[in-house]
Each structure stands twice: as C-alpha cells, then as structure tokens.
Design a protein that fits this description.
Number of strands: 11
Number of domains: 3
Number of helices: 12
Radius of gyration: 29 Å
Shape: elongated
Largest sheet: 6 strands, mixed
Oligomer: single chain
Strand content: 25-35%
Distance between the termini: 42 Å
Structural class: alpha/beta
C-alpha cells in the first residue's frame, strides 16, 4: 500500500474518478472522517427519465455532503465529499448522486443494507443502541425501502391468497395481512379488518395492472365480514377456511358434546384433553383410552364428533407462524405504520438487492 488513503480507497470500493483525499480521526469523539474528491475535468452521468435527460455532463459546481458509514473498529465513520452539480443541454443545473449514497439523505448504501439486515431480527429501539442512529431515522430507512419495493412489486402471478387479521396494539386496532400461499410471503397489508380490507386488496391488484378475477382461492378464518368481502370483491375465488380456525370451532364443539354426555357416561370423565389432541400426538396410554372409548361407546355423539374432528386437513401450512412472527416483531413499535412496514420487511420477502447492491439477493 502506498499510504492510508489507498487502504481506505480499497476498503470502500471507491472507483475513478473518485479518490480518497484525506483521512481524519477525532480521538476524543472517536469519529473517523474519510474525505473523498474527484479528478479535475471529470464528467458525470445524469439521468431524469421523466424530463427526457440522459447523458454525461461537465461539472458546474459542487455541494459538500456527509454520509454515515459502517463503523471502523468501534469508531463512527463518515464519508465527506464535494458532490458535483452538472449543467444539462437545456442549461438546467442538476444535482448528481454519489455512487455510495443511500436512499435516505445522510447514509451510505452499505450502512442502510446493514440496518435492513439487522432490523429483520432486532427491534429498532435495540438497534439504535448498537449503531447510534435514532429510532426515527431507522424507521425512515425501513419505510423508504419498503415503499420502493412496493412500487416494483409484481402481483401478476398471485392466485391463491391467505388472509388474517392481527391486532396492531392493545384494544380493537387491527391490520389484515394478505399472504401469497405459494410463495409464503405477505403481498399486501390493509389497516382494519373485514369487508373493506378485501376491497383494498382488490384495488391494489388493479393498481398493479392485475385483476381480481386472477384470485382463484382464498383461505381465511370464518369471519362473516371476510366471507362477505370475498364474495363481493373476489368473485372468482373459492373460499376455504384455514385449519387453525376450523380446529378451534370443532374442538369447542367436541368439548360441548362431551360435557353434555359426561354426567351419564363415566368413560368421558377426565377425557377432555385426550379428545382435543391429534391422535398421532397421544401417548400410548391415552391412545388406549381413545380406542376403548370408540369400541365400547360407538353410539355416543362425543365419539361421532371426535371422528368428525379428525377429518379436517391442513390448509395454510405455516400461515399462522408468519402472522405470529410479525406480531412478535411489533412488540413496542409505536405506530400502526411501523407495524405494517416491519411486517413487510420480515414477511414480504422483498429482494432489496434490486435497489441496493449491498443487500443479499432473495431467491424464491
């Protein structure tokens, strides 16, 4: 290495015409500032598709900017550079972007990639203690990336949807999640619950150039409002009910029948939890109890109800675990918007490498 500037140039991946001009370290504050500059006479690419501008242009003047970067050996690191402004063919002055600049003003792409990665497994109020960035800015980064990925979202292949509501906070404040059952990922979230949330999902399909008719199957709990919403806004879809809620209703029914017959049938006493378990999860002792009950008391309605219970099949494998994961990550998050963004971050399976080259690509 010729000097320290070369070392940091390689560590940062800085390419021509950019170079490391100087490195400054504030020992008391433990802050490392790496100052970058560009070669004299350099030209810079600028594109504005909406305005029909695309090309390489000379520098008009510069604006000094500063970005938070990954820490170096426990020290906060910042990049600082004169960022060029160029003059387009129409004579307009436009600001260029530094190749390392993140989506949110004041952060590098690599720093934002780190935040997205850690935020998937650690609440922002803990993350801020590690990286020294405020909750507000962490949430703004998450919101920015989720918003851009939602713009790029392709819903054209979504055909089978699972939907469920979950509380945003204590009380009666809810959000409804719509899950692509094939990819096991959240594709849409609506505030509230019931009929209007299904309408919102149908409108989202239209917004993305799709149609409600492409949804062939919907799986949800047995909420009357969900049933009504699907009938009204997803008319081509068959509607099935997920195993979790079906089993809850059936278990309640089995137990009510057992209680009704218990007083005149001694064999049903102390059988509540045995009858509510799946047969494959029973101990050998409990399995013998069930077999004896079936053999000696086939006429009982409890036995009939128990056999009906065993006819149900799993419909939404892993669906409820996804919902619970989102709720667990929402603990302590202050707003419904934050809950929605963290649910997309954790369960949306967005491929952030499409908008940040330092993020790990997602493979479906």
């Amino acid at each position: 290495m010729k000097n320290m500037e070369d070392l940091f140039r390689m560590a940062l991946g800085i390419e021509e015409p950019w170079y490391v001009d100087s490195v400054e370290f504030e020992e008391v504050k433990k802050i490392l500032t790496i100052k970058l500059d560009f070669r004299k006479g350099s030209r810079f690419f600028y594109e504005d598709r909406a305005a029909g501008i695309s090309g390489t242009f000379p520098v008009h003047d510069t604006v000094v900017k500063r970005w938070r970067h990954l820490n170096f050996f426990q020290h906060e690191c910042y990049l600082e550079a004169r960022v060029p402004r160029i003059v387009t063919g129409e004579g307009h002055v436009r600001q260029t972007e530094a190749p390392w600049a993140g989506k949110l003003n004041g952060f590098t792409l690599l720093f934002e990639a780190l935040i997205l990665q850690i935020a998937r497994c650690m609440p922002p109020n803990q993350l801020k203690e590690i990286i020294g960035v405020s909750n507000y800015k962490i949430w703004k980064i998450i919101e920015k990336y989720v918003s851009e990925m939602r713009e790029l979202q392709d819903l054209s292949e979504v055909e089978e949807i699972g939907m469920d509501e979950t509380s945003a906070r204590k009380g009666h404040d809810y959000i409804t999640l719509f899950v692509d059952l094939k990819k096991k990922s959240v594709v849409h979230i609506e505030e509230g619950r019931g009929v209007e949330t299904v309408k919102g999902f149908a409108e989202r399909l239209e917004e993305k150039g799709c149609g409600a008719e492409q949804i062939t199957n919907v799986c949800s709990d047995m909420s009357p409002s969900f049933i009504s919403g699907v009938d009204r806004y997803l008319p081509e879809a068959s509607h099935t009910f997920d195993r979790f809620h079906v089993m809850k209703v059936i278990n309640d029914a089995v137990d009510r029948v057992r209680k009704w017959e218990r007083d005149r049938t001694p064999a049903l006493r102390n059988m509540r939890y045995v009858l509510l378990k799946n047969r494959e999860n029973l101990s050998e002792r409990d399995l013998e109890k069930v077999k004896k009950l079936e053999l000696e008391n086939m006429h009982l309605r409890t036995v009939e109800a128990y056999h009906m219970r065993e006819m149900t099949n799993g419909i939404l494998e892993g669906f409820n675990s996804l919902i619970q994961a989102a709720k667990a990550k929402a603990r302590g998050y202050s707003t419904k918007k934050n809950l929605i963004n963290i649910a997309y971050l954790i369960l949306g399976r967005f491929d952030f490498s499409r908008i940040n080259r330092f993020c790990q690509p997602t493979h479906f």
